[in-house]
C-alpha cells in the first residue's frame, strides 16, 4: 500500500472516531507513518474490547431480568399454594371445632360419661390448641420467609439499578470516546427504555405482591382474632363446665359426709332405742317390784284383820281358803291389770301411727320416653316434668301426651332439675347455671332469674305465697319470699334431712322425699319444722306430687333404665 492511500484511510478513521471533518493534514513524515499505524491498531483493539465488554454487560443484564421474572413466577405460585394450604387448614380447624362441640354436647348427657370423657376432652382441646399454635407459627415462618425473599428481590433490583447506572455511565463515556458506536448506543438506549418499562412492570408487580402480602397479613390477623375470640368462648364454656363439675364434686362429697353422719345418727338412734328398751324393762321391773311389795303389805293387813276376827267383803277374796290363796289372787289381779294397760298403750300407739301415715293404693302407670327426667310437679294445665335435656315438659294427666316444651333462650339450654308451678308461670331450677328462673307457662318467655343461695341446690316448692328451695351443701331450706330477686329471707333446718329428691307444700304441711326414699311430712311453726309423720317409699322413688286424692310418683322401671310415672290413690286421716 502506498503512503497516500494509508494517509487517506487514517483520515477517514479519525473522522469516524472524532465525528468531525478535519482539515487536510499535511503529509506525514516518513518516520511517523509507522506510529500512526500502531495508533490505529491500538484504537481498533480498544474498540473491540469495549464492544465485547458492552455485549457481556448486556447479556448479564438479560440473564438478571430472566432470573427476576422466574423468581416472580415462583413467588406467585408459592403464594397461591399458601392460600390453598391456609384454606385447607381453616376448613380443618372448623371441622375439628365442630367435632369438639359435638363431643362436648354428648359428654353433658350423663354425669358418669362427663367424668369418664373429661380427660379426653381436655387432651382433645389441648391438641387443637397446639395444632393451631403450630400452624400459626408455620404461617408466621412462611410470612417471614416471603418477607426475606421480597427484601432479596428489592436488593437485587437495587443492584440492577446500580448496574444500569454504571451501564449508562459507560455508554456516556463510550459516546464521548467512540462516536462510531452511536448506532449501537441508540440500540442500547432503546433496550434501556424497554428495560425501564420492564422495571416499571416489575415494580408494579412487586407493589401488587406487597398489597397481596398485606391483605394476607390482614386475613391472618383477622383469623387470629377470630381464633382468639373463639378460644375465649371455649375457655368460658370450659370454666362453666368445670364449675358445674366442681359443684357436683362438692355435692357428692357433701352427700358422702351426710350419709356417713346419717349412718352414725342411725346407730346412735338404735343405741338410744336399746337404752329406752332397757329403761322400760327396768321401769317395768320396778313397777312389778312395787306391786309385789304393795301386795305383801295388803297381805299383812289382811292377816292382821284375820287375826282380829274381822270378816272382809268377798270382793277382796276369791275363796275363803286362807291368807295365802287371798294373796295369790290379789297378785294375779294386779298382774292382769298391768298387762291390760301395756296392751292398751301398744294398741293406742299402733292406731296413732296408722292414722298419722298416708296410705296408697296403686291405680295406673305410664313409661316415660325422657332420659333425664328428675322432678314432677302439677298445675291446672297438667303435670310438669323437669328434664336435663328437654327442659320443662308439660304432660296431660289423662294419657301422658306431651302438650308443650319450654327450653332456654338465646341458644343456651335449660338444664332443669326441679319445677314449682305458680299461676300463669312455672319456676325452674337451672342446675347448669345455678339459678332459679321463672318462665311463662304458655310462651316460655323468661320473666325472672335469681342466683341460687348455695352451690348444691336441690328441690323447689311454692306454698302459694313464697318460693322454697333446698341446698345440699348447707343442709338448709331457704324461703325466698314473694320476690326471690331480693334473696333468701330465712333458712331452716330439718334434723335428719341431708339430701332432697322432691318437696311440696300440701295442706299447710311440707312433704319432703329425702335421698334414701323416705317421705316425711312436717308442720311449720314459728320455731321451725316439726315432723308429723312419714312413710318409706323405697330407694326407687325419684319424685312425687300430691294432687288431691291422687299421688303421682316417679320410680325406676323394672325392665328399663328409664323412669315411669305411677298414679296411686292416697288416704289421709
SSE topology sketch:
Blueprint: H1 3-18, H2 33-107, H3 111-177, H4 182-307, H5 323-356, E1 359-367, E2 373-378, E3 383-387, E4 391-395, E5 402-406, E6 416-422, E7 425-430, E8 435-440, E9 446-451, E10 457-462, E11 467-471, E12 476-481, E13 490-492, E14 500-506, E15 509-514, E16 518-525, E17 528-536, E18 541-547, E19 550-556, E20 563-571
Antiparallel strand pairs: 1-20, 2-3, 3-4, 4-5, 6-7, 7-8, 8-9, 10-11, 11-12, 12-13, 14-15, 15-16, 16-17, 18-19, 19-20
Describe what this molecule looks like in 3D.
The chain has helices at 3-18, 33-107, 111-177, 182-307, 323-356, and strands spanning 359-367, 373-378, 383-387, 391-395, 402-406, 416-422, 425-430, 435-440, 446-451, 457-462, 467-471, 476-481, 490-492, 500-506, 509-514, 518-525, 528-536, 541-547, 550-556, 563-571. Residues 312-321 have low confidence and may be disordered. It folds into three domains: 33-258; 264-356, no CATH class; 361-571, Neuraminidase, CATH 2.120.10.30. Strand 19 (550-556) and strand 20 form a beta hairpin. The termini are far apart. Helix 1 runs parallel beside helix 2 (33-107), helix 2 runs parallel beside helix 4 and helix 3 packs antiparallel against helix 4 (182-307). With 573 residues, the protein is of the alpha+beta class. It has five helices and 20 strands. The strands form five sheets. A four-stranded antiparallel sheet has the order 1-20-19-18, with no helix packed on it. The chain has a four-stranded antiparallel sheet with strand order 2-3-4-5, with no helix packed on it. The protein has a four-stranded antiparallel sheet with strand order 6-7-8-9, with no helix packed on it.
